[in-house]
Design brief:
192 residues
Amino acid sequence: MAKVFSHLDDALRKFIGEQSMFFVATAPSEGGRVNLSPKGYRDTFAVLDDHTFAYLDLYGSGAETIAHLRDNGRITVMFCSFSRTSRILRLFGTGRLVRPDSAEFDTLRPHFGLQHPGLRGAIVITVDRIADSCGYSVPYLELVDERPVLDKLHGGRSDDDFARRIVGDNATSLDGLPALEPDHPIPSAIPR
């Protein structure tokens, strides 16, 4: 049976910490495409307080989440248990990108593993609704390992590659909404 929670208590934090991945959903204000992205690497997400969640944003195939958050801020994060205990947890809220060259990013550093070579920033979410559901139809899956492919791919990219992405496929969403600013720092410029 579904339950709504007033805050991210210790039991919810424990559940979040046990998950190896989560999903992020955003959408533009008008028309356009809904974006749903899987996120991995356990050292890239953290509960900051009773109503704040954050995750490291790594370069991927585009910048849909960033563009949608710049447009309207709406975001839903979903954790889904694939273990013997079925459960789905959704965090609804308002998110924003924290650039890695900001003072605020410096305050987030202790919560994450910053060694990922494709680091683009952090998404910070103010959670206004926390709800779970049964997840009875979710299959049992066993984690073999974290997939190293994204880190390996980014580790082989040059500064010029990242600079081209910032003004190229990361400058706008698929629907033309602005995403990264042209002066966004490249990963090698981010102190680790």
